[in-house]
Known about the structure:
By secondary structure, the chain is mainly β.
Amino acid sequence: MPLDHLVFTPADVDLSRSPLAGKIDAETYVLGAFNPGMTRLANGNLLLMVRIAEALKQPIHDGHIHAIRWADGAYHLDAWPLALVDTADPRKFLMRGGGWKVLALTSLSWLLPVELDAEGRSVVAVHYDRAIAPTANYQCYGVEDARISRVGDRFLMTTCSVSPERHCTTMYSSADALDWTLEGIVLDHQNKDMLVFEGLVGGKYWAQTRPLGDLYFAYPPGSEWRAGPSINLSTSPDGLHWKPYDKPGIRPHAATVSTARMGGGTPPILTDAGWLTLWHGVEPSGVVGIYRTYWSILDRDDPSVTVRTEHTPLLEPAPALTEPLKDSLYLDNVVFTTGIADAGDHYVVASGEADLACRITHVAKSVFA
């Protein structure tokens, strides 16, 4: 049977080695260890860059709800009166009133490098000494959802950085995928799921992006497309300065509600057929919807052209995998694919399962033939 298992879970995290350890006066726990960026190291092993959502065990006390925030080289606890907030979701709270949605978090995310064997079957090492935590004001509520691309001899890692200033995309670079340098902000407010292509196109860096908003304009009646979040494209001369591409990328298809929302998943990799990209589609259901993984092949010379795409999901949420962790579940129906690596006749695919744990799946290359 092909491999499909959880390789890293909240129970595998040693919070005594967390960047927050001993730096806030409150007890924390791992809400999730999930959405891992992935690449292959020089030694042949796989590296996961795991998002650790470290949360307050008792965010509500003394008539207030508390948020963890980094600022000026230290972590702080902010107390908000319960009368001012909506606390229906234990992961976050919503400020009441105002003309737009304002959130704060009861957790703070940081990135933990986890080294796996070459097939992703087991953990080889956990590199706490190379964890990535907030270091800039625009990261004060955390660093989320790494995606790693190798372009030539350079590794580029995009992350979401969260703060009151902006919800932006930041870039890290590395020569070995273990020691990273923060290059700063590359995409501004509320642009998520940035994925750098693993190779140049026409001498330029390319990336998939996903700008968010509350307003979208309608396609004409009978269009094959549905208005809403889509996967856009940008180009860059150096991997740091990005210009949106004039043509659209992958758009939600009107033929299926499974892509009512969509966004990027894995950095596109070049195959004989073109650029293979795995992405997520969301079917409206319950609070967050049902997240599944789909795939497309993009033209090698113009990635705005989709050569082939499939409406049948490649990966579905797998409740059987999280059954042993059911006491820790706070979401279901979510698989969020974030990394891919070549392994000969198959790909190793990394995903976040239920915003809780890291899932590794082997997918035969013949699936994409």
